[in-house]
Q: What sequence folds into this?
């Protein structure tokens, strides 16, 4: 049944991508995880200032809503077509996927690492509501929710408190070791493998970077819009 779903998903997404003119990998909104390839360099459309303007526009809101709906539909369809499947899971990135850092970017027209870390430890980031509602709904439908972020372990307390204040229910939070060196996709791939080694089947992997999605260990993946920055 998984092969049938993957085949059907491939053709649905191909039609979707052609319709929207989104055959560039950076613009892929949803596809089987096996189709995602890493990006060696920052795409030309990534620009901090112009990306923030887009992030504050109605176009971003519409793109975010439509993309999250793809993830929701796939999860619902998978459960309906595999009613006996157990230990199903969703993996979600945090920043610009579940946590909304636009209030920080709005007052920092030039990115500043020190100021950003102060923002993180202030634990006041609001939620991106479409993703938050999707994860909450699917958790009630029986999916385990694992949050996987490029934030470092030193930010665990602040990040956890931020999620608690926003009433986010989840089943695991994975952060990079403080001394981690390497590509984000290496870290995230290894964590997804560890989740599946625990006995879970990751049905959906959702994030705003290609590096959130590359590496497999998920049936489907959805890339949310982000034109502000690139994480390799």
A:
């Amino acid at each position: 049944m998984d092969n049938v779903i993957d085949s059907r998903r491939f053709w649905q997404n191909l039609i979707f991508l052609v319709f929207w003119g989104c055959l560039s990998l950076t613009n892929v909104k949803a596809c089987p995880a096996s189709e995602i390839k890493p990006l060696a360099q920052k795409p030309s459309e990534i620009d901090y200032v112009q990306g923030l303007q887009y992030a504050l526009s109605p176009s971003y809101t519409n793109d975010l809503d439509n993309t999250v709906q793809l993830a929701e539909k796939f999860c619902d369809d998978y459960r309906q077509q595999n009613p006996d499947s157990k230990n199903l899971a969703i993996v979600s990135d945090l920043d610009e996927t579940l946590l909304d850092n636009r209030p920080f970017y709005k007052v920092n027209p030039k990115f500043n690492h020190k100021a950003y870390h102060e923002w993180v430890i202030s634990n006041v980031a609001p939620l991106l509501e479409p993703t938050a509602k999707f994860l909450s709904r699917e958790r009630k439908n029986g999916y385990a929710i694992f949050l996987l972020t490029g934030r470092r372990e030193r930010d665990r307390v602040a990040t956890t408190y931020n999620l608690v204040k926003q009433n986010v229910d989840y089943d695991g939070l994975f952060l990079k070791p403080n001394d981690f060196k390497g590509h984000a996709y290496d870290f995230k791939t290894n964590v997804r493998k560890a989740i599946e080694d625990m006995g879970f089947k990751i049905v959906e992997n959702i994030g705003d970077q290609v590096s959130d999605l590359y590496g497999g260990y998920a049936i489907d993946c959805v890339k949310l819009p982000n034109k502000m920055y690139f994480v390799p």
About this structure: The CA atoms of residues 30 and 222 lie 4 Å apart.
